[in-house]
Amino acid sequence: MTTDPEATIRPFSHLFPSMVAKTPDIDSGEQPPFNSPAHGKDAPLDTPPVINHGVDYVIVFRYPIKSSDDRLQLEQKVVDGFEALATKLTHAQLFFEVKQGQERGTLLVLVGCPQARLYAEYKAQRARDFLLGITVESTDLVPTNSNKDDLSASSPLRQGFTEAVRLQLIYDILTSSEKAGGADISPHVDPFVDSIMPLHNDNFNKKWISTWSKKWLIDNDDLCNIRNHFGEKIAFYFAFVQFYFLWLMIPAGLGVLVYFTHSNTLSIWYSISMLVWGITFTEMWKRKQMELAVQWGVLNCSKHEKQMSAFKGDKTVPDQITGEERPFVPAWKIILRRALTLPAVALGAAFLMVIVGLVFVLQLFLHEYYTGPFQKFLHYAPTIGYVLLIPTMSGIYSKWVRLLTNWEMHQTETSWEYNYTQKIFVANFLVSYLSLFFIAWIYIPFGDHVLPYLNEFNVSHDHKKVDFQRLQDQLVYFIVTGQIVGFLTEMVLPYAMSWAMPKVKNISTKLVHSVSSKTDVGDNINSNTTPDIALSPEENLDFTKKLDRETGLEEYNIYTDYVEMVIQFGYVAMFSPVWPLTALCCVANNWVELRSDAVKICKYTRRPIPLRAENIGPWLRNMETIVWLSSITMGSFAYLFHPTTDLHSSYVPLYTLMAILLSEHLFAGLRLAIQSIISVIPSWPDLRIKKEDYMIKRNWLQRLDGSNSNISPKTLDEKITHDPMAKHWSKGMDSESRAEAAIRLVRNQFKSG
Amino acid sequence: MTTDPEATIRPFSHLFPSMVAKTPDIDSGEQPPFNSPAHGKDAPLDTPPVINHGVDYVIVFRYPIKSSDDRLQLEQKVVDGFEALATKLTHAQLFFEVKQGQERGTLLVLVGCPQARLYAEYKAQRARDFLLGITVESTDLVPTNSNKDDLSASSPLRQGFTEAVRLQLIYDILTSSEKAGGADISPHVDPFVDSIMPLHNDNFNKKWISTWSKKWLIDNDDLCNIRNHFGEKIAFYFAFVQFYFLWLMIPAGLGVLVYFTHSNTLSIWYSISMLVWGITFTEMWKRKQMELAVQWGVLNCSKHEKQMSAFKGDKTVPDQITGEERPFVPAWKIILRRALTLPAVALGAAFLMVIVGLVFVLQLFLHEYYTGPFQKFLHYAPTIGYVLLIPTMSGIYSKWVRLLTNWEMHQTETSWEYNYTQKIFVANFLVSYLSLFFIAWIYIPFGDHVLPYLNEFNVSHDHKKVDFQRLQDQLVYFIVTGQIVGFLTEMVLPYAMSWAMPKVKNISTKLVHSVSSKTDVGDNINSNTTPDIALSPEENLDFTKKLDRETGLEEYNIYTDYVEMVIQFGYVAMFSPVWPLTALCCVANNWVELRSDAVKICKYTRRPIPLRAENIGPWLRNMETIVWLSSITMGSFAYLFHPTTDLHSSYVPLYTLMAILLSEHLFAGLRLAIQSIISVIPSWPDLRIKKEDYMIKRNWLQRLDGSNSNISPKTLDEKITHDPMAKHWSKGMDSESRAEAAIRLVRNQFKSG
Hints:
The structure is a homodimer.
Chain A: H1 5-8, H2 17-20, E1 57-62, H3 71-91, E2 95-100, E3 106-112, H4 115-132, H5 138-141, H6 156-159, H7 163-175, E4 193-198, H8 202-214, H9 220-230, H10 232-261, H11 268-295, E5 315-318, E6 325-328, H12 331-369, H13 375-378, H14 381-407, H15 413-456, H16 468-508, H17 510-529, H18 537-552, H19 558-575, H20 582-604, H21 618-640, H22 652-680, H23 684-705, H24 717-721, H25 735-752
Antiparallel strand pairs in A: 1-3, 1-4, 2-3, 5-6
Helix pairs in contact in A: 4-7, 8-20, 9-10, 10-11, 10-19, 10-20, 11-21, 11-22, 11-23, 12-14, 12-15, 14-15, 15-16, 15-19, 15-21, 16-20, 19-20, 19-21, 21-22
C-alpha cells in the first residue's frame, strides 16, 4: 500500500493515518483499536476522548526536606520555586493541579491544556512548518470554509489530533520560550523541577501488547498506531527494527545453507554476498525511511531545530533567515573546540580499551592455559567482568563524553544528540568488537610466537594450538550470552525490581505515608469543597496509585535500544563468515526484541514524550561505517583463515593488507554500482514531494494571476505588425512571398548547376 | 563583494548584474562596456539596442546540388524542405529573411524575433522556472503596477534583457515543441537544416579582448559581462578557469620552494600538502559555483531538463509531476543497456591503450636504446605519433562512444551529455596519463629485469640505468610540448587557416560566385522595391561579408576546453612531486589560456548559443576522481622512488600496495575532515536561498490570511473558562488559590519533617 503514491495524497493524510492505512483488523472490539482518537469515529464529536482525566503531563517537583543550611530559608526557596512554576503555567494558559507525591518532598503538578490553547499552538506550528519547508497541505493553512477559529464539531481540528500530536504540541507549549507564548519550563534549569512526563494510556498499552503477542509480523498499520500514540521518533525505531528483522531473513537463510554445505565457511562468495547484502540493506533503508517520512508528513521536520536552552553563546545576533534573535558563536571557536575534544574522546576510548583488553586477556588465559588452583571459580571471573566491570566503566566513559559534548557548544539539540550518540557508539563498538578483532588480527596470527614465553613466567599451562575455533567460540559467546544477558537486564530485572521495590519502600517510607495520607485526606476534603480533578474517591485512589507507580519508573532511553540493534547488525555484517548462524540467532532475538521493547515501554518505563523525527538519525551512518569495516574484516579473514594460508610465513601481514586493499575497493565499487542502480528505479515519495510542491506553486500562481502560466501566442498576432522590431524587416511582404523569394534562389541554383 | 548577501538580494538581480556588480572601470567610453543592454542606461528607452540589424539567429540551410537520383525530384525535395521550415517559422511568429549563402547550395535564413513574442516567451519561462523551483522573485511573476502586457517604456522588460537572455529565449522558441508555441526546429532532424547560429556582436568582442589583454586578473564584473553576453554555460567555464588559476598559485609557490630546497622532491610532506590542496580546491569550487549559481539566479535550472528530441521510448505516459505526455522506457531496460555499454567502452579504451602503449614503447626504445641506422629521423617518430596518430585514434574512439551513448537511451540532454563526457574523459585520461603510469609502476620497477632480453633480439643498444629521471623527462615532455602543441592548434592553426582558406575558396568557387553574385543583385533589386532588411548597399555588403565569414567558422566546443583544464589539473595534482615546477608552468599557461580562449570564441568559432547552467557539470566529479587517484600515485611514488628503496627487492610490490592503502585512507580521512570544517563555516548563498524561500512563503501566507503566522495567546483567555476541557478541572479556584493549596502541602512537609 505504501508503494502507491495516490493512496496517501490527501489533506491531513499525516494527521489521519486511518485514511492512509485502513484501520487494523482488530478494529472490531467495542472501542476503536488502541483507543487512538484518530480512529474514534463513533465518539461524539463535541467531546474529544479524554484520557487520564484530562491530565496531559505531570511535572515532578522534587525538593530536599533537610539540608545543611537553615530550614526556613530552604522552605522559602522551595515555596518561591513553586510559585515561579505556578506563574509560568498560568501565563501559558494551562490548567494545573497539585498532588502530594508518594515519596517525601515531591509534589506532582498535573498539567492539562485547554482545546483553544492547543488549537492556537497547532495553527502556529503549522505556519512555522510551512515556512520551514515541511510539507503542509495548503488547505491546512487556509481553512476554505471561512472563519479559522471555528471550533465547531465539523472542524477536523476538534477530534483530529492523535494523542501523539496533542502531547507533542503541549510539550512545545511547556518548553518553548515565553515570548513564543510557552511556559519555558526545562527540568534541572528551573529550580526543583525534576522532570516532565506524560501519563500512559493503559487502554492502548494493553491492546498493543495483546495484539503484538498474537501476530507474527508487524505491519504498516501497527506502525501507524504507534506513531499516532508515541510519535514519530519511537515509531521510527520500531519501523527500523521490523525492516531490519525482515531483511535479516536473507543472511539467515544463506547462513544456514553455508553452515551445512561448506566446511570452510569463509568462502569468498559468501563473504561477498554478505557485503552486497550489507550495502543493499543500508541503501534500501534510506529509501524506506524517506517513504515513512513522507507518509507521516514529517519530511524536513529536522529543519526546525530546537535551540539548546543551555547554549548561550558569546553574543546574540538576529537569525539570518527568520530574523529572530539567537545566541551566536564564531565558527573558528566551535571548530577549535570540536577539534580539541577529539583527543579527549580518544583518551576515554583508550582507557576503555585497556579495561576490555585486561578482561579479555584474563579470560583468554584462564580459559585456555590456566591449570592452577581454583580453576573452577576463576573460570567465571571474566564473565563477571563482562557483565559488571565493563558496564560500569562504560558508564564512567559516557559521563566523560557527556561533559565533552556539552563543552563543544552545540546550538541545537539535534547536533548535540548527534555528537553525543557518536561518542557513545565508539564505546559500545570497542566493548563489543575489540576482543574479536584482537583474536582475529593479533592473537591468532602471532599467538604461537607468544606462547613459549609463558613458560618463562613459569605459569603452568597446557599448550593448545591457536586457531580459528577460538574466534568462533568468542563470537558465539558474545552473541548468545550477550543477547541472553540483554534480555535479562531489559525484562526480568525490572520485573523483579517492580515486584521488590514497593515492599522495600513500605518499610522505608512508613512514616511519610502516615503523614502524607493525613495531608492527602486534608487535601481531598478541601478538594471536595472546591472540587479538585472531578473524580469519585475510588477513581481518585486508582489515579493516585497510577501516578505514584509511573513517577517511580525511569525515563525511556531509546539510544540503548538503537545501540543494541546496530551492534547486532555489526555482528551479522562483519562476522557472519566466522559463524554463519549469527544471522539466524539475531532473527530469533529480534522477534522477541520487538515485543519485549513494547512491554518495556508500556510497563517498565515512563511514557516517552512524543517527538517528531524524519529518520533514525546518526545510526544509519554508523551502520554504513560498519558495512565498510565488514569489507575489511571479511577480506582479511578470507585470507588469514584460508586452509592454505601458513600463518607462520613472514608474508602474512603484507598479504593481509593486500586482501584488505582489494576488498575495500570491491566495497567502494559495489556501493557505487548498487547506489546507481537504485537511483534509476523511481521512488514514489520523491515523485510525490515534487508533485505536491508543483501543485502548491501552481495554486499560488493561479490565485495571484491565472493567465501567467498559459500565454497563447495567438494573442500576439496584431501586436507583431507594429512591433518595434518590425521596422528592421520587410513590411511589404508576408511570409509566403518571402518564402517564394527564397525558393526562387533555390531554383536558380539548380538551373545554374 | 560576492561575500555580502545583502548586495545581491534584489528583484531582477539576475537580470541586472549592473545592480549586483558595479559597472566595470572601463565603462567610461562613449558607449556602455561591451555594449551589453543591461548597462545601456543612456539608450533611449523605447528603442532596445539593435545588434546585427535585428538578426538574432541564422539558420544554415544546406542542400546537395547534384546527387545520384533525379535532379527535379531532388529540387522538389529541397523546395518542400524549405517550405516546411518557412511555415514553422511563421507559426512561431518569428521574422525571417533569406539570403544566398557563399558556398553553392546553402541558404542563410535570417531570423528575428518581435518584442511581444519575446516578452510572452519570457513570461512563460518565468512561470515554468518558478514551478520547477528555480529561484524567481515573486514580483517577477506579479507585475504589481497592474496590466502585465504593459510594454511601456517604464517596464524593465523592454530594455532589461541581456543579449544572453534574449538569444536564449529565442533559441527556446526555435527549438521547443510546436504545442509549446515553438518552431520545433532541430538541425539534422529537419531535412537540410544544417545548423542554427547566432551572430557575433563585433563591438562587444573588440572591447572584451582589448580589456582582457590589458588587465592582469579577471574580476567578477568581467564574468558578469560574459554571462550577460554568452550565457551562464560559457561564463561558468571562464569562472572556473579563473578560480583554478588563482588556486594554482599555492602549489606553484610551494613547488618552487621545494624545487630549490629539496634534492628529493618526493618528500612525504610535499605530497601530503598537495593532497590537501587538491581536496580543498575541489571543495571550495563546489561552494564557489554554488555562489555563482545563486548570484546569477540559475540555481536548480538544471531541473528543467530539455528532452532529447531523439528519445522516443516504448510508449508515452503522462509525466508524474507536470502531467504532460512524455516518452517512457521501463527502468530495467535502461539499467540493462547502461550495464551492457560498460564492456563496450572498456573495449574502446583497451584499443586506445594498445595504440598509446605502442607509441610509447616505440618512443622509449628509440630514445633510450636504439643506436641503429636513421637514428636521427626515427628519433622524431614518436612525437609525430603523439601529435597525429593518437588524436586520430581518439577521434575514432569518440565516434564509437557517441554511438554507445545514443544507444543508452537518455531521456534528457543533461544525462546524455553527462554520460558522453565521462566516456570521452576516459580517452583523454588514457592518452595523457597512461604512459606516465606505465613508466612509474612497470617500467622503472621491472625495467631492469627486461633489458637483458633485448640482447636476445640482438638489437644494438647501450644499456642505460632505468631511473626516476625517465619519469620526470616524460612528464616535462607532456606538460611543455603538450601545452605548446595545444596553443598552436588552438590559436595559430586556425589563424593560418582563416588566412589561407579564402584564397583556396576563391579558386574553387569562382563559378558559384559569378552566379550567386548575379542572383544576389537580383535579390537586392527586388529587395529595393519591397525593402529587404532595411540597409544601405554598403551596410548590406558588410553584413553579407560578416554572414559568409561566420557561417564558415565551426561551432565552439566547450568540452575540449574543459578537458584541457581538467587533464592539466591531473598533472598538477598527481605528478607535482615528480616535477615541482608543474604548477608554475600551468599558471603561466592558464594566464594565456584565459585570453586565447576569449580570442578563439570571438574570432575562430561561431558565437555559441547562450545556455543556462548551474555548475560545470561532470567535470567536478572527474576532478574529485583525480584527487583520489593522486593519493595513490603520490603514495606509491613516495615509496618507490625513495632513495632508500631497493627496487630489486621482492618486497617492492607489497610495500607499494601498503603505501597505497595507507595514502588512500589518509585521503579519505583528510577529505572528511576538510568537508566537515568547511561545512561549519556558514556560506551566504545557502543562507540567501533559505531566506528568499522563507520570504516568498511568508508573503504567500500574509496574502492568504495574515493572522495565521502570529497568534497571540492573549486572545484566548475568555475562551478557556468555558473550554470543553475545563470541566475536568476545578472551576471554583483560580490559579493563585491553587498554588496556595500546593504551598500548604509544602509547608506541611516541612512541619512534619
